[in-house]
């Protein structure tokens, strides 16, 4: 079963409940389905993933409350300048994602198309290298406690998934390589804006990129606009992006660059971006001179959860992914070295 339309690369839909509560045979079947999806598209939708829908709904409610605060209040939890401490609030236009671009000139060209989004990042409370940056509690009482507990919900799912993937490859569990759960919970808000700005690529919601960690979970609202680039499409241009319609109650799971590398290219870290949703809303009744009324994209909220490996984990081709047909493609690298290189390109 897929969520595809004729023009969309198929994003398989997998019932993860069969892994969480199933027999050994069912677990192996689920592992094989996710492996297959990762090999073909790099993305898979999971239903019955174990994070209760009420918790997901509550997360979106907190996110809406957070972003509705005055900017001056949100800035009481500011994302520090630079790229080494990725926590706190980033206002509109502060971050520009990029795809493996490290050259300053190219980066400034990319930044000419701003991402119209604001974000709030938090991480594992035990991660001393990147302490969380919370609002004063009285500004949004309960927000911190909820985010800390939702982090746990998502981290638990990630560790289950790491087991599942090892089962697919018949290798020792990958969960211990993520023992410190150095993960990142991100709240994203894309405000309403004229559809023409997104369609003409004068602005982006989030520009084309791949994620740089190992695995990403993505919870999204019903607005739509997420697009992934068909991995079968050659070249690296703007062509080949297809919409990924949101699926109610399902979480989207995708492979990040570090996992692509770890799997020796078996699993694909696929380019994705967020553009105009398929159905923008009409605003107003047109101008006094009879000019066209402006189509406006409704605001969108999403909650990505990024996993990466422990800093000292050595990322080198997993044994299940190397054979005569698939020789080793990459040099070993520690997770920390890799992340540093990618983060440097994120902020100007
Ligand atoms: O908002 C979305 O749906 C995608 C977000 C995303 O790709 C990211 O934050 O890396
Ligand atoms: Fe992403």
From TrEMBL:
What is a biological process (GO) this protein takes part in?
small molecule biosynthetic process
The annotated regions of Polar residues compositional bias extend over 121-132
The record's keywords, sorted A to Z, are: Iron, Metal-binding, Oxidoreductase
**One Pfam family of this protein, by short name?**
DIOX_N
Annotated spans, Disordered: 115-134, 273-294
Domain Fe2OG dioxygenase, by residue range, is 178-309
SUPFAM superfamilies to which the protein is assigned, alphabetical: Clavaminate synthase-like
Which family does the record assign? Answer: Belongs to the iron/ascorbate-dependent oxidoreductase family.
Protein name as catalogued:
Clavaminate synthase-like protein
